[in-house]
């Protein structure tokens, strides 16, 4: 079966077909370890491996994986630039990128989120956490380890805590496109509410909430809920404890 046939049927990853995963790391032993962990799961399929960012971008386009496990520090094109190219505007339906790194550095974390990563985990986590993260991203959600979420909020909640002036202006303009209901949904997303919790809070059906979430992400040009959380704190829509 070709990549197009495997990825373009409209089948739901992890339900109607395995979740297709691309491994990107410059260390062969690390990629082998990830492959061993993932391939014992019936709903996961490793479709390729890349040792640098440039190769990862090409393979992501050719193989159409659902999730890319991306290292940061690699020779040539690093994982941050590769993530930026894989998730660039104009590539709807592309893979979600999960950053996996040994380096617990804020600059990597924030750069990865701005580049379009849907998740960020440290390599000292458990195999179970990695498997669950892949499944979460394949469903279209985003994921951060709890300790990383606290750091994101602490940094982005400060006035100007990560947004250049031009970016702030563009963000305000985008916020102006939201309806009052969509802004309420964004606030609840930023507080970590699920679709069911948003539905209960706003007295809406879950299908209606899902439509609102999709419209919020589209209007703000965001890929997933993690990006929505960052956007909301970065632009002052919500504040810690608010």
TrEMBL record:
Highest taxon above the source species: Bacteria
InterPro entries membership: CheY-like_superfamily, NreC/VraR/RcsB-like_REC, Sig_transdc_resp-reg_C-effctor, Sig_transdc_resp-reg_receiver, Tscrpt_reg_LuxR_C, WalR-like
GO molecular function, a single term: DNA binding
Residue numbers carrying 4-aspartylphosphate: 71
GO terms classed as biological process: phosphorelay signal transduction system; regulation of DNA-templated transcription
Protein name listed in UniProt: DNA-binding response regulator
Domain Response regulatory, first and last residues per copy: 20-138
Annotated ranges, domain HTH luxR-type: 171-236
Keywords: DNA-binding, Phosphoprotein, Transcription, Transcription regulation
Organism: Micromonospora costi
A Pfam match: GerE
């Amino acid at each position: 079966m070709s990549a197009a046939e495997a990825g373009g049927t409209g089948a739901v990853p992890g339900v109607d077909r395995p979740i297709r995963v691309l491994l990107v790391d410059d260390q062969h032993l690390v990629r082998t370890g990830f492959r061993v962990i993932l391939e014992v799961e019936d709903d996961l399929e490793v479709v390729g491996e890349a040792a640098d960012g440039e190769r990862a971008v090409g393979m992501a386009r050719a193989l159409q994986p659902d999730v890319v496990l991306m290292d940061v520090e690699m020779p040539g094109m690093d994982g941050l630039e590769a993530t930026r190219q894989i998730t660039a505007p104009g590539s709807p339906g592309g893979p979600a990128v999960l950053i996996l790194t040994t380096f617990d550095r804020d600059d990597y974390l924030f750069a990865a989120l701005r580049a379009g990563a849907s998740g960020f985990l440290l390599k000292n986590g458990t195999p179970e956490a990695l498997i669950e993260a892949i499944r979460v991203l394949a469903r279209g959600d985003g994921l951060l380890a709890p300790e990383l979420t606290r750091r994101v909020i602490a940094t982005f909640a400060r006035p100007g805590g990560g947004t250049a002036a031009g970016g702030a202006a563009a963000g305000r303009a985008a916020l102006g496109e939201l309806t009052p209901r969509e802004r309420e949904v964004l606030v609840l997303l930023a507080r970590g509410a699920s679709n069911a919790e948003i539905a209960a809070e706003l007295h809406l059906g879950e299908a209606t909430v899902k439509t609102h979430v999709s419209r919020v992400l589209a209007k703000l040009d965001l890929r997933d809920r993690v990006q929505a959380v960052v956007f909301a704190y970065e632009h002052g829509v919500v504040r810690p404890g608010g």
